[in-house]
Structure to design on (527 residues):
């Protein structure tokens, strides 16, 4: 129990016309990178916003290091770093000025702010850009500034809301390795994404969220093992059907069976297969 | 208090980066009013034994300090709806009080800068009037009230378009009717008590009284102080409302 960083119990959020969350529960261990994986509109950002204190839940409880965050709001905000989906930096101010203001918002001493800015600019490879205005940076660099801004006050929990959305594949991979490096420093991370390969690459544990509900929690590898190691895609005239197999021999037999009449392919099972399988069961 | 300072510093840094443009825009309106109403139209007008230009300047300071203090709503709107930086403030461990104080004092700073520009232009135009600590205290209270209103309106509105409505229906009429350009004594009986109760009218009368006669009523400062406290409390509640 003592190494649980974040515990969410039966979280419900109702907007006037829709239930965004319908009783979400999960917990994250200290130093774990936990991914919430789901399509757009599944409720991922709502969870992040509630944890960060940006919106109130309709019902439910959240504990951060055993403390109820709603009873300790100012304290919990100080323990959390948030990287929002959109780039919310002051575009007219420089990288350093944006970081300085963040440090002051988090009540840090000026000497510590300067030290942390220097360390993080080094970590993010942004030292030469510290006097650049945000509007002069590329999207990838802006994302990196967003991440180091969230790390400036040394949060115990980092919330990453779709940190690579809209980025080119090569920049996305750079951000991934940056996130991996952050995890090595001992920070607990909650990541939301709709990119399956992102969750598979980064996460220690994954929760599938669909239509405001958690429909499965496991490690990426356990999820994949449950379904099988190999997938055979058969392209029928009207639809694509995928068959899953534990061993390669059986997969190859199936491949041969359909290959005479249809276009077929054999590949490794990935997290997307598991997610689609879970969703199909729900529909 | 660091939280308050962070908010104030952000506004100050943004302000500093646009200093030349800001100073220019702060100077244009008073210059136009002084030339059009004061030197042009008001050349042959005499109010209570004083030239119209002498009558106009304190009113112009009241109106300009109101407009500039209220204008923080534009910056807050940009931060909230366009840059989404308001979320950064909401997620940080600062109190609503610190946030509100930082924003309101940045509005007061804008108002004082605009006031100093009008005073400088007036002296250059050869207008002489009294200035003392109470004069600046009145400007401070007026700016504090309207910066709080600006913050409240920025928190309660749902889009940029709504903000224009607030300015067009509240601030602009108040600017013209609040004892700035003409005396309120001759207003129709049904509207006079309402106009004279407006904070801008109280400010205009107080500043004019100090500037022209070096005297004022302490009760006016007390009333402005009470309005300032109430408007700040309303602003605090409006920040809470903006959460969802």
């Amino acid at each position: 129990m003592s190494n649980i960083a974040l515990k969410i119990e039966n979280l419900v959020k109702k907007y006037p016309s829709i239930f965004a969350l319908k009783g979400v529960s999960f917990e994250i261990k200290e130093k774990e990178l936990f991914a919430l994986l789901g399509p757009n509109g599944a409720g991922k950002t709502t969870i992040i916003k509630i944890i960060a204190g940006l919106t109130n839940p309709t019902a439910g409880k959240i504990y951060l290091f055993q403390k109820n965050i709603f009873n300790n709001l100012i304290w919990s905000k100080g323990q959390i770093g948030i990287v929002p989906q959109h780039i919310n930096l002051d575009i007219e101010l420089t990288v350093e000025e944006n970081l300085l203001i963040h440090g002051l918002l988090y009540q840090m001493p000026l000497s510590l702010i300067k030290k942390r800015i220097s360390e993080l600019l080094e970590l993010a490879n942004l030292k030469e850009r510290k006097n650049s205005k945000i509007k002069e940076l590329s999207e990838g660099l802006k994302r990196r500034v967003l991440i180091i801004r969230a790390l400036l006050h040394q949060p115990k929990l980092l919330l990453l809301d779709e940190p690579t959305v809209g980025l080119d594949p090569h920049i996305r991979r750079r951000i991934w390795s940056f996130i991996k490096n952050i995890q090595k420093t001992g920070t607990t991370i909650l990541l939301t994404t709709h990119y399956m390969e992102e969750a598979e690459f980064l996460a220690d544990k994954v929760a599938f969220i669909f239509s405001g509900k958690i429909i499965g929690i496991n490690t990426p590898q356990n999820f994949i093992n449950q379904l099988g190691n190999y997938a055979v895609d058969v392209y029928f005239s009207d639809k694509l059907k995928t068959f899953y197999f534990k061993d390669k021999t059986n997969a190859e037999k199936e491949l041969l069976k359909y290959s005479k009449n249809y276009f077929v392919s054999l590949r490794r099972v990935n997290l997307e297969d598991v997610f689609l399988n879970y969703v199909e069961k729900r529909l | 208090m660091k939280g308050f300072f962070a908010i104030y510093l952000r506004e100050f840094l943004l302000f500093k980066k646009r200093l030349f443009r800001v100073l220019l825009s702060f100077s244009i309106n008073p210059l136009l009013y002084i030339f059009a109403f004061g030197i042009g139209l008001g050349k042959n007008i005499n109010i209570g034994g004083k030239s119209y230009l002498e009558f106009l300047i304190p009113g112009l300071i009241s109106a300009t300090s109101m407009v500039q203090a209220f204008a923080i709503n534009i910056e807050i709107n940009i931060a909230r709806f366009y840059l989404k930086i308001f979320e950064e403030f909401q997620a940080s461990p600062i109190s609503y009080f610190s946030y509100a104080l930082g924003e309101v004092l940045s509005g007061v700073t804008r108002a004082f800068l605009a006031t100093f520009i009008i005073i400088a232009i007036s002296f250059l135009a050869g207008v002489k009037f009294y200035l003392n600590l109470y004069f600046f205290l009145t400007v401070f209270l007026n700016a504090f009230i309207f910066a709080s209103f600006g913050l409240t309106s920025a928190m309660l509105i749902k889009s940029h378009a709504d903000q224009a409505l607030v300015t067009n229906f509240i601030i602009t009429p108040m600017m013209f009717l609040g004892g700035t350009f003409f005396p309120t004594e001759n207003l129709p009986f049904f509207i006079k008590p309402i106009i004279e109760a407006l904070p801008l009218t109280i400010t205009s009368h107080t500043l004019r009284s100090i500037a022209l006669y070096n005297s004022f009523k302490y009760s006016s400062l007390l009333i402005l102080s009470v309005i300032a406290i109430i408007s700040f409390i309303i602003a605090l509640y409006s920040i809470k409302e903006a959460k969802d």
Chain A touches chain B at residues 52-56, 74-75, 77-78, 80, 82, 84, 86, 88-93, 97, 100-102, 104-108 (CB under 8 Å). Residues 224-282 of chain A form one domain. The first strand of chain A starts at residue 4 and ends at 15. The mean pLDDT of chain A is 91.
